[in-house]
Write a structure and sequence with these properties.
The chain contains 4 helices and 28 strands. The chain is mainly beta. It has 2 domains: 181 residues, Immunoglobulin-like (Sandwich); 206 residues, Immunoglobulin-like. Pfam families: COB_C (PF25079), COBRA (PF04833).
Length: 451
């Protein structure tokens, strides 16, 4: 018995270890297999020395495939290594000046030990601009708009040292875009950046350059997901809705004002009320409570082709999604033949070996602006794909996407066992016994026991 007890105890210990292993928080939350090298790189180039410091150009490059920084834009912060101050800025501004009382005349632009910097707005006077500035902090993805995938400003720093031996790099960089989600590493001094003249015949270089890399984690950005996926097909009347409470289980009983019915007389007051300034979404009351729902409908099946309809619906009464994008993963995306009303670009996160990921976004001035919740709060398109005779099937949910992202955030998918099945391929678990059949089965088994 002791041996048996010891064996059982060992077994329980192994099971407990397995449970702890799989329930432990992941250590690679910032890694995304569809965008393994995605990051925002901050490049700090000192371009000239001043009597007590330097002038630098700071540029943020968005190297993420499908995640942009939307309105109200980025804010960048750091901690000075010494007692530096910001004398002036072009193309951006510090949100607070801080205590500059020790400066008797011409106080600096900012004296805070940990300044917070934001972009200037469009329409800023020309003499306060530099290239790639003044876009209200919005940075597009390189795939959608490469000309607007960077943001820059110029900063004049004082009390900082006047050589690359005495200058100390700032510490503790933070990037909000506009909320949390990005984690920035330490500044690393690297090879000075080279600048080329417009004719390409002359090159100059920065006096000193350091880089900071910031990576995104959806886990850090918000406590609950921001989108979900629903499914339907022409061969089954079942509509698979988003899982219940996909984006949280708040309701008006436990969290007053967390959602609003679209026919509620209090809708306008809820939208325009004091809660608007919090930045929190105000969503239409639904079973999933998500600001965004993506619906995938298998529409038609031809001899050599098949067609899918994709609809994006905005349930957020406080948010217009400008320059949105949608990323989906499906094995037949290597044979996209035609797309209607969306732009499209294949993504090859595995070095070009597999082409199963597609990025979609709206057409400029047509449907790139997704209105807040209401009659116009949706965008839709159809995708025509050529069949691969060796892989194509409508069986076992093959026709539905493996993963879906909206604006870079992973959407909640329904459980695979709930997908619409072909009528002649439905599993037995999809057909539970009705009460009359169950009673008949029990009576029959009782009678047979006496035969």
């Amino acid at each position: 018995m002791a041996a048996v007890g010891g064996s059982a105890a060992a077994c329980c210990a192994v099971l407990l270890a397995a449970v702890l292993l799989f329930s432990a928080p992941a250590t690679t939350e910032a890694y995304d297999s569809l965008d393994p090298n995605g990051n925002i790189t901050i490049k700090w180039d000192i371009i000239s020395w001043t009597p007590d410091g330097y002038v630098a150009t700071v540029t943020m490059f968005n190297y993420q495939q499908f995640r942009h920084i939307a309105a109200p834009g980025w804010s960048l912060g750091w901690a000075w290594a010494k007692k530096e101050v910001i004398w002036s800025m072009v193309g951006a501004q510090a949100t607070e000046q801080g205590d500059c009382s020790k400066f008797k005349s011409s106080p600096p632009h900012c004296c805070k030990k940990e300044p917070n910097i934001v972009d200037l707005l469009p329409g800023t006077p020309f003499n306060q601009q530099i290239a790639n500035c003044c876009k209200a902090g919005v940075i597009k993805t390189f795939n959608q708009d490469p000309a607007n995938a960077a943001s820059s400003f110029q900063i004049s720093v004082g009390l900082a040292g006047t050589t690359n031996k005495t200058v100390k790099v700032p510490k503790n960089f933070t990037l909000k875009a506009p909320g949390p989600g990005y984690t920035c590493g330490r500044a690393i001094v690297g090879k000075p950046t080279r600048f080329y003249s417009s004719d390409g015949r002359r090159a100059t270089q920065a006096l000193m350059t350091w880089n900071v890399t910031c990576t995104y984690s959806q886990f850090l950005a918000q406590k609950t997901p921001t989108c979900c996926v629903s499914l339907s097909s022409f061969y089954n009347d079942t509509i698979v809705n988003c899982p219940t409470c996909s984006c949280g289980c708040q309701n008006n009983v436990t969290h007053p004002g967390s959602c609003v019915n679209d026919n509620s007389p209090y809708l306008q007051s809820a939208i325009n009320g004091p809660g608007k300034i919090t930045g929190q979404p105000l969503v239409q009351c639904t079973s999933h409570m998500c600001p965004i729902r993506v619906h995938w409908h298998v529409k038609l099946n031809y001899k050599d082709y098949w067609r899918v309809k994709v609809t994006i619906t905005n349930f957020n009464y406080r948010m217009n999604y400008s320059d949105w994008n949608l990323v989906a993963q499906h094995p037949n995306f290597n044979n996209i033949t035609k797309l209607f009303s969306f732009n499209y670009k294949p993504l090859t996160p595995y070095g070009g070996r597999i082409n199963d990921t597609a990025m979609f976004w709206g057409m400029k001035f047509y449907n790139d602006f997704l209105n807040q919740a209401g009659p116009l709060g949706n965008a839709q398109s159809e995708v025509l794909m050529q069949k691969d005779s060796e892989t194509f099937t409508l069986d076992k949910g093959w026709a539905f996407p493996r993963r879906v992202y909206f604006n870079g955030d992973n959407c909640v998918m329904p459980s695979p066992d709930s997908y619409p099945w072909l009528p002649n391929a439905s599993p037995l678990t999809k057909q539970p016994l009705t009460l009359p059949v169950l009673v008949f089965s029990i009576v029959l088994a009782t009678l047979l026991a006496y035969v």
